[in-house]
């Protein structure tokens, strides 16, 4: 038998068909191109997760946003900008509910990811929804009425119909389960990370920053949008009780809503010379603010996570935080905690850091180690894993 004849008697093996990568659409309309409070927590979370979605696994992504494509966009992501002014709430709702279902069909999406609370009622494929917190449930008077009602309605709808939900802390996961009755196995936790820019900086660089902004040698720092749930009036009460001029308070963050009470409390307590409103600061300067501060203070009664805590810890800055909601998850054993309703207890914590160098040194040493527990690369990988679970577990909501 010839070689050719022998070869022809063996059936040829055809290669398995190449599987089509899942096509995932991501609603990223809360990305902001303008400086201001809108570039705070949710913007940072959306931006960093998009930057860290795995490039080689998990599928291909179409990102729907107001912002045009950028040269440094990840290679597995395509942007679909919209001409609608979605920085305005009504235009964003119109896009989510009317345009996105149509775009999902046009782009042949396999999965939708709504990165902030709301999913389209006419979604043509399974959905994943990120719910950052339920502050509008726990502190309803802190929200304008129309905004609160909208968040209540769309979040309840997402909890009923999304294939999977993402919380950004275990506290948030338990909260969603308790308030909306969502089974815990349908809720994933994807915690924020901390960028490499947040680290202890050289002393001469920090000193130059202090001189440039005419900052005192020691000051207390609060980072967060000025809004009621940040509990800033209690921080002002604690500052008044502290009764010292060598550690003023600097409030970094843009004006959100219902912030007039903060300015009124400063005036009522006679703290005009001891409180400085720095407004929104650029991302590039924020590590310098943390490094220059004697301590970060976060008195919020409720947070989905508390990203400033991790950023400050990564810089080696002592942290004093409320013992509430998710904040102990962020600070771990590297922070001091107080009752968010007790200004005296907060004042005592601040005095401990300012007057006892060994306390401040212990916290500065423990901070970076605690911060290393949080990674944006891990957040990207975990988000891709949620997509996989949503696509491979057809049972449950569509």
Structure description:
This protein is of the alpha/beta class and 398 residues long. Helix content is 41%, strand content 14%. It has helices at 3-8, 41-52, 89-106, 135-138, 145-161, 170-180, 203-213, 232-242, 260-268, 286-292, 307-314, 327-331, 343-355, 357-371, 376-392; strands spanning 23-27, 60-65, 77-81, 111-114, 127-130, 164-167, 187-189, 220-223, 249-252, 275-279, 295-298, 319-322, 336-338. The strands form 2 sheets. The protein has a 7-stranded parallel beta sheet, sandwiched between helices. Strands 10-9-8-11-12-13 form a 6-stranded parallel beta sheet, sandwiched between helices. Helix 7 crosses helix 10 and helix 8 (232-242) runs parallel beside helix 9. The N and C termini lie far apart (60 Å). The model is unreliable at 1-12 (pLDDT under 50).
Brief sketch in words of this structure:
With 398 residues, the chain is α/β, with parallel strands linked by helices. It is built from 15 helices and 13 strands. 41% of the residues lie in helices and 14% in strands.
Overview features:
single chain, 398 residues, alpha/beta, seven-stranded parallel beta sheet, six-stranded parallel beta sheet, globular
Query: What's the tally of helices?
Result: 15
Overall 3D shape = globular
Share of residues in strands = 5-15%
Instruction: Quickly give the structural class.
Output: alpha/beta
SSE order, one letter for each helix or strand? HEHEEHEEHHEHEHEHEHEHEHEHEHHH
Cα distance, first to last residue? 60 Å
Give the biggest beta sheet: 7 strands, parallel
Q: Number of DSSP strands?
A: 13
Question: Which range best describes the helical content: under 10%, 10-25%, 25-40%, 40-55%, 55-70% or over 70%?
Answer: 40-55%
Low-confidence parts, pLDDT < 50 over ≥5 residues?
A: 1-12
**What value does the average pLDDT take?**
89
Calculate Rg over CA atoms: 24 Å
**Which strands sit side by side, in order, in the main sheet?**
3-2-1-4-5-6-7
């Amino acid at each position: 038998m010839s070689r050719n004849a022998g070869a022809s008697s063996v059936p040829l093996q055809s290669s398995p068909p190449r599987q089509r990568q899942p096509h995932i659409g991501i609603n990223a309309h809360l990305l902001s191109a303008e400086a201001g409070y809108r570039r705070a927590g949710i913007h940072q979370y959306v931006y960093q997760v998009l930057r860290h979605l795995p490039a080689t696994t998990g599928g291909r992504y179409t990102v729907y946003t107001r912002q045009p494509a950028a040269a440094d966009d990840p290679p597995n992501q395509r942007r679909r900008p919209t001409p609608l002014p979605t920085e305005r709430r009504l235009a964003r709702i119109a896009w989510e509910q009317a345009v996105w279902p149509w775009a999902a069909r046009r782009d042949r999406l396999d999965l939708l990811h709504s990165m902030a609370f709301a999913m389209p009622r006419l979604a043509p494929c399974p959905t994943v929804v990120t719910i950052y917190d339920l502050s509008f449930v726990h502190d309803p008077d802190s929200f304008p009425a129309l905004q609160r009602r909208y968040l209540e309605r769309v979040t309840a709808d997402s909890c009923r119909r999304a294939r999977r939900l993402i919380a950004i802390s275990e506290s948030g996961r338990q909260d969603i389960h308790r308030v909306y009755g969502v089974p815990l196995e349908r809720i994933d936790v994807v915690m924020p990370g901390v960028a490499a820019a947040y680290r202890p900086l050289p002393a001469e660089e920090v000193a130059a920053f202090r001189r440039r902004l005419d900052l005192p040698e020691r000051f207390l720092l609060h980072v967060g949008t000025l809004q009621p749930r940040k509990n800033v009036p209690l921080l002002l009460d604690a500052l008044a009780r502290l009764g010292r001029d060598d550690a003023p308070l600097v409030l970094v963050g843009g004006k959100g809503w219902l912030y007039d009470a903060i300015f009124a409390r400063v005036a009522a307590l006679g703290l005009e010379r001891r409180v400085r409103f720095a407004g929104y600061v650029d991302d590039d300067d924020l590590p310098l603010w943390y490094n220059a501060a004697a301590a970060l203070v976060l008195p919020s009664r409720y947070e989905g996570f508390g990203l400033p805590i991790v950023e400050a810890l990564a810089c080696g800055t002592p942290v004093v935080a409320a013992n509430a909601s998710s904040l102990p998850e962020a600070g771990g054993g590297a922070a001091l905690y107080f009752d968010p309703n007790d200004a005296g207890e907060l004042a005592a914590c601040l005095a401990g850091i300012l007057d006892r160098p060994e306390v401040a040194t212990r916290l500065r040493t423990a901070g970076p180690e605690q911060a290393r527990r949080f990674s944006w690369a891990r957040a990207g990988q975990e988000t891709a894993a949620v997509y996989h679970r949503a696509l491979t577990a057809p049972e449950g909501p569509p």
